[in-house]
Structures are given as C-alpha cells and as structure tokens.
Amino acid sequence: MSVPAWVAPMLAVDDGGRLPVGEAWAYEYKFDGYRAALRVGVGGDTVLTSRNGLDFTGEFRALVGAAEVGRDLVLDGEIVVWRDGRADFELLQERRGRFRKGKSVEEFPVRFLAFDLLAFGGTSSLDLPYDERRRLLLDLPLPDDRVAVVPALSGPVEDLLDRAAAEGYEGLVAKRRDSRYLPGKRSDDWRKHPFTRTAEVVVCGWHPGRGSFAGVVGGLVLGAYDPASGDLVHVGDVGTGFDTRERARLRDRLAGLERATPPFPVPPADRGARWVEPVLVGEVRFRHRTRGAGRLRGTSWRGLRDDRTPDEVIMPSKPAETRVTVRVGDRTLKLSNLDKTLYPDGFTKGEVIDYYSRVAPFLLPHLRGRPVTFLRFPEGVGGENFFQRNAGEGAPDWLTTVVLPSDASGTVEHALVDGLPALVWAANLAALELHVPQWTVDDVRLPDRLVFDLDPGPDTTVVECCRVAERLHAELTADGLVPVAKTSGSKGLQVYAGIRTADPMAPTAYAKAIAGKFTAATPRQVTATMAKAQRKGKVFIDWSQNNPAKTTVAPYSLRGRAEPTASTPVTWDEVHACRDPEDLVFTADDVLDRVAEHGDLFAAVAGRTALP
C-alpha cells in the first residue's frame, strides 16, 4: 500500500478559560471524536492513523475512498459518529464496543472532519501559514460528505461562543493565522476552549458494584503521570456516567489485568479496590481539578480511549504560588497554603474553600444571623483541632460580629457568617466544621428550631437511626410540625423542625418528653440516657441539643472525618429507603451534585410552627 508518511499531530494548549481575541486569530468548532490523520495515495489507497500512531483503517473502513482526489494527501482531523446533525461521542464509544465484538456497525455513520492539510501532491504544507493551508484544504475536490472540512470562523468571540454552545459543539479552538504546523508539539499557537471539561486518565483499579450493579464495575480508580517525578499518581475516582452494558464491558476488560498491589508508588487509602495493570486509558468529564493535588472532582465516565497510551496521560504542572489575593464579592482576601492537605484522602484547603464557595447559596441562609462556632483543623484531620467561638484578633475589620454573654467568661465576640466573603475567610482558617445554635441574634437564646440528634450506639448504624427518624416524623407531623432530616456528616442523623415559642426551655422539654416516650415503648432499640454504657445496640435520642447554650453542626457543613463528608439534608424517601450505612454518606462532591439537582432540601426549616 502506497500512502504518504504519517505526521504526528500538532496539539493545542488549554486557554485557561480566556479565549484569545483579535484579527490574528481564526476559530474552529471543537468536535467530540477520535483525532486521526487520513492518508491517501495517488491510486486511492487509504490509511487512517490515530493520534498515537495506531492503525484505525480496519475499524473505520467506511471512510476508505472518501478522500480519493487523484493525488496523494494527508489530512488532519477528527473521526466522529454523525447523528441528527452533530457529532455524538457516546455513539462513537458504542460503535467501538460493537466493532470489538465483531458486530455490525452500519447503523453508526462515521465522518472524517478535516481541519488541516499537511501534504498534497507530494509536497509538504507544514511550513505554510495556517491561512494558506486552509485555502488549499478548501480547494480540495472531495468526492462526498463522508469527509467534510471544519469551517474556520471569524467575528466577535462572544458571538462565536454563544453560537457554538447553542449548536451543541464541544467548544472552540483558536489558531494563529500565521502559525506553522508543528508535528507532535503542543503549542500556544493553538488554544482550545472546551465547554465541557474533560481529562484523559489511566485506569488503575475498580470497585465492585453493589445493589443493582452487583457483579459488574461500580466505579474506577484513576491515575495520571506526574511530569516532575514521572510517577503514576492517584487523581480521583469515577462512579457515574456508565450504563449497564459499559459496566459489564469494563468488568470483562479488567478481568485479565488484575494485580495484587496498587500501581501507585504512593497508594491511596482505598478500601475494597481491586487493582489492575495501568495499561488502559479512559476519558472523564469533571467539574474542576484541585489546584494542589490535581484531583478530579465531580467526575463522570465518557469511555475508554484505545487511541491513547498511558504515557500520554500527564497531569498539569502544579502552580508554584501558595499565597494568593482574591476578590470575593466586595472584599479582598488573602488565601494561603491552598495546596495543604486537610483530609487523609488528599482533599486540600483549596478544595475546602472551593466547596464552601459553591455551596454558599444553600448554606448561608442557615448561618445568617446565628453566631458561628468554628471547629478548626489547622494541621488537617488527624492533627490538633479546637473549637473557636471568639472571632479572634486576626479577624478582618469588615467581618460582622456580635458580643453575647457567656457563662464561662462574661462575653464572647462571635463571628456572623452573613455572606460569601466571611465564609471564604473562615474556610481559609481551616474551619472545616461550622456549628450554630437553634436561635438567631434577633431573639437571643429563644429557639426557632427544634432538633433531635440521633446518635447510633455500638452495634448500630444510621440505618437504625432512620427507623427512629421515621417514628419522629409521624410524631412531629401529628403535632402540626414540619420535620426535615439531615445526616450529621458523621455516623448519625438529625431531625429538625421550624418552631415558634416564647419559652427558651420549651423545646428541650418537648424533645425530652418524646425521647422518653420512645424509650418506654422500645427500650431495646432506643435510649434517652446520655451514659455511653446504656447505648450498646441502641439509638441515643439526644434531646439536650435544644438547650439554648448548645450548638449543632450546620447543614452543608463539612466534618472532620477521614473523607470530606458533609452534614447533608435528605428527603424522607431517602430515609425510608436506607438499608445500608453507605446509603446516607455524602462527600463534598456529592453535596454539590445534590444541590444542583434538588436545591435546598433544608429550606422548610425556615417555616415557623407553634410548638405544642
């Protein structure tokens, strides 16, 4: 077979969210497919070659002959599955799965979308400027629409971005009009602006599925290579984005790759993972990448990338700056040690700040007007921690505070976290946990919330707490209250209700009476006694949290546990369905996904009903 030589593709750099503008730049749509070179000989011989030099010709035989123009040529472009006027990456992955099993793929029409001409008629065009290569590409007499030319765009960048997003493209690529083609180089002459953030990852292990996913893959452990050390490092996990067939396909692919030890020189604290040889490359969508550790958060699986090799999967270089000045709302804050690991699983202070910034619209209404007590972990979870009620001498002068009486020391100047700047300030102090009383400064020590803190004793879990919570739901509803449940973010469950009362001690008396009633009815399942010796095999109903002098962890607050779990509002359907402790364990990433889907499940507590 006589075809021109393969040319390693030129690669684009990420634009960091700022697409370059000006007359020096041309723009192209960014498509979702497999990067490839289409090489055609004078006699029509055709070879398709992947970005890393693999032969794609057999898999995409439908493209052979689509660029036969009577002269040899080399095109750079993207192989896509075309459906309903757009490229569909999921269908491309499904086509690959069928092809590997020897099944027909005729129902998956493929196209080659060309965006560069690298050689024509025996002459290289690599040294020509982009605009000249584009002119030659557009002049090619392509015989049919199996090969199409990606249009070059011009105009106001804002308009182009809006149009690309509205039409369902993956993003835009900006290219310097005078740039040469640099084979195998990643150059800032080409800059990509993706709408969906994706990353290539090395599959390093997997977790068996549970429940309806038993027997197949439940999730994957992901890695990438550190460019400084060359080591394979853990960059996160992915447990969503798979359909049932993909979970089964992955199980079969991974079955022959198992190994006894993690492939990482520094293995993650991962219980229950099954490790595999790091030879498969996949792609995930992700919400953000942590600044220090480079962890991928909010991941969703897109599929395996057989056109990539593991050595191509390189982590971005870590930024050297550890102290930054940022503008938060109308305030300027100095943030420090963002790369510092605060949780054993690698969650950094930068990620803590990011989480609180993102969850702020849902958290702040439940902090506003309530003096906050911080539980700080300056050395991270596992190090020394302490409660801080006083705002402290280092608090910024713009921070809203309130001076309140204290039984221990006369008065305390409490911080009021009444906006995003105050929340970010607290997070920068490594204040992982935020605790608030059941009253606001508008009515000091007059509770507007009722709370039952359900604490599982030895040999019990949150599952047993859910059964008690169901009884509380019935009891409170019968009394005209509107109960709301949230996890403690640790081991237990809490049930709240918004109330009106003129007696500061009335909520304590009411909660204690119900706890006593439940204990009398089911003494083997429930206790209202604080003594730990009485709690084995039982759920402790802590009614004392209603005392005006006490605080409980705020909804959406992180907890100082091995993982960055959070106190998470849950639906009563979730409480009823809970049969496994893991059913009600939610990390920071889970909470962000939940508020995006459900909004604020704790909002009903803002309603006030007279306490019986």
From TrEMBL:
A Pfam family recorded for this sequence: DNA_ligase_A_M
GO biological process: DNA recombination; DNA repair
Top-level taxon of the source organism: Bacteria
Keyword Cell cycle found: no
Keyword list, A-Z: ATP-binding, DNA damage, DNA recombination, DNA repair, DNA-binding, DNA-directed DNA polymerase, Exonuclease, Hydrolase, Ligase, Manganese, Metal-binding, Multifunctional enzyme, Nuclease, Nucleotide-binding, Nucleotidyltransferase, Transferase
Catalytic reaction list: ATP + (deoxyribonucleotide)n-3'-hydroxyl + 5'-phospho-(deoxyribonucleotide)m = (deoxyribonucleotide)n+m + AMP + diphosphate
UniProt-listed Enzyme Commission number(s): 6.5.1.1
Cofactor(s) needed for function: Mn(2+)
GO molecular function, a single term: ATP binding
Domain ATP-dependent DNA ligase family profile, residue spans: 103-226
Keyword Mitochondrion (UniProt): no
Family, similarity comment: In the C-terminal section; belongs to the ATP-dependent DNA ligase family. In the N-terminal section; belongs to the LigD polymerase family.
Name by which UniProt lists this protein: DNA ligase (ATP)
Organism (species): Saccharothrix violaceirubra
Lineage of the species this protein comes from: Bacteria, Bacillati, Actinomycetota, Actinomycetes, Pseudonocardiales
